[in-house]
Protein backbone atom coordinates (compact mmCIF):
# COMPACT_ATOMS: atom_id res chain seq x y z
CA UNK A 1 0.00 0.00 0.00
CA UNK A 2 1.29 3.47 -0.83
CA UNK A 3 1.15 6.00 1.98
CA UNK A 4 1.26 9.81 2.18
CA UNK A 5 4.02 11.62 0.36
CA UNK A 6 5.29 15.12 -0.21
CA UNK A 7 6.70 15.75 3.25
CA UNK A 8 10.36 16.60 3.72
CA UNK A 9 12.25 14.07 5.81
CA UNK A 10 15.55 15.72 6.82
CA UNK A 11 16.05 14.96 10.52
CA UNK A 12 17.87 17.40 12.80
CA UNK A 13 20.60 14.79 13.29
CA UNK A 14 20.91 12.95 9.97
CA UNK A 15 21.28 9.17 10.30
CA UNK A 16 24.74 7.67 9.85
CA UNK A 17 24.40 4.82 7.36
CA UNK A 18 27.26 2.50 6.43
CA UNK A 19 27.20 0.11 3.52
CA UNK A 20 28.21 -3.55 3.63
CA UNK A 21 31.84 -2.44 3.08
CA UNK A 22 31.82 0.03 6.00
CA UNK A 23 31.65 3.15 3.79
CA UNK A 24 29.67 6.08 5.27
CA UNK A 25 26.76 7.40 3.14
CA UNK A 26 25.28 10.89 3.54
CA UNK A 27 21.58 11.52 4.25
CA UNK A 28 19.48 11.14 2.21
CA UNK A 29 21.53 8.33 0.63
CA UNK A 30 20.66 9.22 -2.96
CA UNK A 31 24.14 9.87 -4.38
CA UNK A 32 26.76 7.26 -3.53
CA UNK A 33 30.08 8.05 -1.87
CA UNK A 34 32.75 8.91 -4.43
CA UNK A 35 34.38 5.94 -6.21
CA UNK A 36 37.75 7.13 -4.85
CA UNK A 37 36.44 6.78 -1.30
CA UNK A 38 35.00 3.34 -1.97
CA UNK A 39 38.16 1.70 -3.26
CA UNK A 40 38.53 -0.64 -6.21
CA UNK A 41 35.59 -2.99 -6.63
CA UNK A 42 33.93 -2.19 -3.30
CA UNK A 43 30.45 -0.84 -2.91
CA UNK A 44 30.00 0.44 -6.44
CA UNK A 45 26.27 1.12 -6.56
CA UNK A 46 24.18 -0.87 -8.99
CA UNK A 47 22.67 2.24 -10.60
CA UNK A 48 23.35 1.47 -14.25
CA UNK A 49 26.53 3.57 -14.32
CA UNK A 50 24.75 6.85 -13.61
CA UNK A 51 24.45 8.92 -10.45
CA UNK A 52 20.80 8.87 -9.36
CA UNK A 53 18.94 12.04 -8.41
CA UNK A 54 16.41 10.19 -6.22
CA UNK A 55 16.13 6.76 -4.66
CA UNK A 56 13.95 4.16 -3.07
CA UNK A 57 14.94 3.37 0.52
CA UNK A 58 13.98 -0.29 0.74
CA UNK A 59 13.72 -1.12 4.46
CA UNK A 60 14.12 -4.72 5.61
CA UNK A 61 13.27 -6.01 9.11
CA UNK A 62 16.24 -8.42 8.91
CA UNK A 63 18.51 -9.57 6.10
CA UNK A 64 18.11 -13.28 6.78
CA UNK A 65 14.40 -13.57 7.52
CA UNK A 66 12.48 -15.69 4.97
CA UNK A 67 10.47 -12.81 3.47
CA UNK A 68 13.46 -10.46 3.38
CA UNK A 69 15.55 -13.14 1.68
CA UNK A 70 12.80 -13.54 -0.94
CA UNK A 71 12.73 -9.78 -1.55
CA UNK A 72 16.52 -9.66 -1.84
CA UNK A 73 16.12 -12.11 -4.72
CA UNK A 74 14.70 -9.35 -6.94
CA UNK A 75 16.29 -6.09 -5.72
CA UNK A 76 19.02 -6.13 -8.39
CA UNK A 77 16.36 -6.47 -11.10
CA UNK A 78 14.45 -3.55 -9.58
CA UNK A 79 17.66 -1.46 -9.45
CA UNK A 80 18.30 -2.18 -13.14
CA UNK A 81 14.76 -1.16 -14.08
CA UNK A 82 14.93 2.07 -12.03
CA UNK A 83 18.35 3.23 -13.29
CA UNK A 84 17.19 4.65 -16.67
CA UNK A 85 14.90 7.06 -14.78
CA UNK A 86 17.75 8.26 -12.53
CA UNK A 87 16.29 6.42 -9.54
CA UNK A 88 18.61 4.46 -7.25
CA UNK A 89 17.77 1.67 -4.84
CA UNK A 90 19.22 1.45 -1.33
CA UNK A 91 18.39 -1.53 0.87
CA UNK A 92 18.37 -0.42 4.53
CA UNK A 93 18.30 -2.69 7.58
CA UNK A 94 19.00 -2.34 11.30
CA UNK A 95 21.43 -5.25 10.88
CA UNK A 96 25.13 -4.48 11.30
CA UNK A 97 27.33 -3.81 8.26
CA UNK A 98 29.01 -7.19 8.88
CA UNK A 99 25.66 -9.02 8.65
CA UNK A 100 24.79 -7.12 5.47
CA UNK A 101 28.20 -7.99 4.00
CA UNK A 102 27.47 -11.67 4.68
CA UNK A 103 24.04 -11.32 3.04
CA UNK A 104 25.59 -9.65 -0.02
CA UNK A 105 28.30 -12.29 -0.26
CA UNK A 106 25.82 -15.17 0.02
CA UNK A 107 23.28 -13.77 -2.43
CA UNK A 108 25.55 -11.95 -4.88
CA UNK A 109 23.52 -8.75 -4.54
CA UNK A 110 25.11 -5.68 -6.13
CA UNK A 111 22.57 -3.16 -4.83
CA UNK A 112 23.96 -1.19 -1.85
CA UNK A 113 22.97 -2.62 1.55
CA UNK A 114 23.02 0.13 4.18
CA UNK A 115 23.25 -0.54 7.89
CA UNK A 116 20.96 1.50 10.16
CA UNK A 117 22.53 -0.24 13.16
CA UNK A 118 23.73 2.73 15.19
CA UNK A 119 22.17 4.90 16.28
CA UNK A 120 19.80 1.98 16.09
CA UNK A 121 17.04 2.55 13.53
CA UNK A 122 17.71 6.28 13.07
CA UNK A 123 17.04 6.24 9.31
CA UNK A 124 13.92 4.11 9.69
CA UNK A 125 12.67 6.43 12.45
CA UNK A 126 13.38 9.51 10.31
CA UNK A 127 10.94 8.33 7.65
CA UNK A 128 8.38 6.62 9.91
CA UNK A 129 9.49 3.09 9.03
CA UNK A 130 10.66 1.89 12.46
CA UNK A 131 8.67 -0.56 14.55
CA UNK A 132 9.30 0.37 18.20
CA UNK A 133 7.70 -2.86 19.43
CA UNK A 134 10.14 -5.13 17.54
CA UNK A 135 13.16 -2.82 17.39
CA UNK A 136 13.40 -3.37 13.63
CA UNK A 137 12.42 -1.57 10.46
CA UNK A 138 8.97 -2.15 9.05
CA UNK A 139 8.74 -3.76 5.61
CA UNK A 140 8.45 -0.35 3.92
CA UNK A 141 9.88 1.43 0.91
CA UNK A 142 10.23 5.21 0.79
CA UNK A 143 10.91 7.11 -2.45
CA UNK A 144 12.99 10.24 -1.75
CA UNK A 145 14.47 12.94 -3.90
CA UNK A 146 17.94 14.42 -3.35
CA UNK A 147 16.71 17.04 -0.87
CA UNK A 148 14.84 14.51 1.25
CA UNK A 149 11.27 15.02 0.09
CA UNK A 150 9.26 11.82 0.29
CA UNK A 151 7.50 11.19 -3.02
CA UNK A 152 5.89 7.80 -2.35
CA UNK A 153 5.63 5.02 0.22
CA UNK A 154 4.95 1.31 -0.07
CA UNK A 155 4.18 -0.84 2.96
CA UNK A 156 3.67 -4.57 3.36
CA UNK A 157 2.14 -6.27 6.36
CA UNK A 158 4.35 -8.42 8.57
CA UNK A 159 5.02 -11.67 6.74
CA UNK A 160 3.99 -10.28 3.34
CA UNK A 161 6.41 -9.55 0.50
CA UNK A 162 6.42 -6.25 -1.38
CA UNK A 163 6.16 -6.47 -5.16
CA UNK A 164 8.76 -5.20 -7.61
CA UNK A 165 6.05 -3.78 -9.89
CA UNK A 166 4.58 -1.67 -7.06
CA UNK A 167 7.87 0.29 -6.91
CA UNK A 168 7.72 1.03 -10.65
CA UNK A 169 4.02 1.92 -10.54
CA UNK A 170 4.57 4.36 -7.65
CA UNK A 171 7.05 6.51 -9.59
CA UNK A 172 5.68 9.93 -10.51
CA UNK A 173 4.90 10.17 -14.25
CA UNK A 174 7.84 12.47 -14.99
CA UNK A 175 10.18 9.82 -13.52
CA UNK A 176 8.94 7.07 -15.81
CA UNK A 177 11.23 4.11 -16.43
CA UNK A 178 9.37 3.08 -19.56
CA UNK A 179 9.00 -0.40 -18.01
CA UNK A 180 5.67 -0.11 -16.26
From TrEMBL:
Record-given protein name: Alkyl hydroperoxide reductase subunit AhpC
All residue ranges annotated as the Thioredoxin domain in the record: 28-173
GO molecular function terms listed in the Swiss-Prot or TrEMBL record: antioxidant activity; oxidoreductase activity
InterPro entries: AhpC/TSA, Thioredoxin-like_sf, Thioredoxin_domain
Region: Disordered, residue numbers: 1-45
Entry-linked SUPFAM superfamilies: Thioredoxin-like
Compositionally skewed regions (Basic and acidic residues) per UniProt: 1-21
Taxonomy of the source species: Bacteria, Bacillati, Actinomycetota, Actinomycetes, Micrococcales
Origin: domain of life: Bacteria
Amino acid sequence: MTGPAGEREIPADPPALRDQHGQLWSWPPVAPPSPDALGAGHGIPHDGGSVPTRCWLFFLPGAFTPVCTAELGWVDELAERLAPAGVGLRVVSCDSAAVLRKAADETGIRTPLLSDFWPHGAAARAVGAFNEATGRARRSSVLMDAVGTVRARIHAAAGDERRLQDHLDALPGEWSTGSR
